[in-house]
Amino acid sequence: MNEHHLRYYATKQNMISIAIIWGLIILFILQPGIAHDGAEAGAQLFVHALLPYLLPYIILTQWLLKVPAENPSKKSWKRYMKAYVLGSFGGFPVGAVTVTEMVKNGELSRRESGFLLAACHAPGPMFILGFVGTELFGDTTSGWKLLIAIHIANILFLFFTLIAMNKGRRELDSPQLPLLKKRAGSPFLESIKESSTVIILVATTVIFFSALGNVLTTAISKAFTVDLGITKTILLAIFEMTSGVQSATDHFFTSPVFPFLIAAIISMNGLSIHMQVFVIAKTADTPFLPYFISRIWSVITVPIILYFLL
């Protein structure tokens, strides 16, 4: 493809992006009340459902990763287990934070980080047991079963990940980024500083995509004859997971498919979480193909595993 065609496609992409942005701006202007309600709902969900469960773990995880290791392990499986335990049990987007920090520390190669980003990606236990289990399901046992289903799917994906990584270990196992010097100062203070950046990113994406989902739901419901509950749940699930889960609870709580719908929405994550992961992992130039494959895998397998557990 020559330079002329590349320039043409770049210009076309820019024009499409500008058209989408202006279309959304006009929608927000025409429906300020709906946009406000969506943003307010997103802010409330962030403060109520995400911040209390996410912030303490992010700080502790960052603190642990920033403490200089006396004898860092050279065994691959120990590094992978470290990434999985710290990342997948911390909640979104702690997996991305953990893997990225380990790449910067020289503990993982770029190739390894792509696979581990995919496998070490799960909602935190406090979120599933506290918010989903207790408040949405009304039953902590169901929350435990959902958490188990998520980790069974992740561990299976991690198993396939280890096989894939072992095939090309000789050529691609060395770290792709230079080992960074440890910063002078307190690891605890550094962890608080970087955790605040992650929390702001999470809050921004949750509030924005909640508002966007609310505005688009109203616009589509007015333009077409569709069920508001179904439309709202689908759109919010696509844009913002927590809002999608809340909408599914409001409209499908009595349905037999309710727990499996919640499992699918949480496994899909939504654009809000994908954006968080992308922004964080991009700093380490992490490949994203395994991550997208893992989302498809989880959406299919987690509800099936949950069905057998229930």
TrEMBL record:
Keywords: Membrane, Transmembrane, Transmembrane helix. The keyword Membrane applies. This is Sporulation integral membrane protein YlbJ. The chain crosses the membrane at residues 15-33, 45-64, 84-103, 115-134, 146-165, 198-220, 257-281, 288-309.
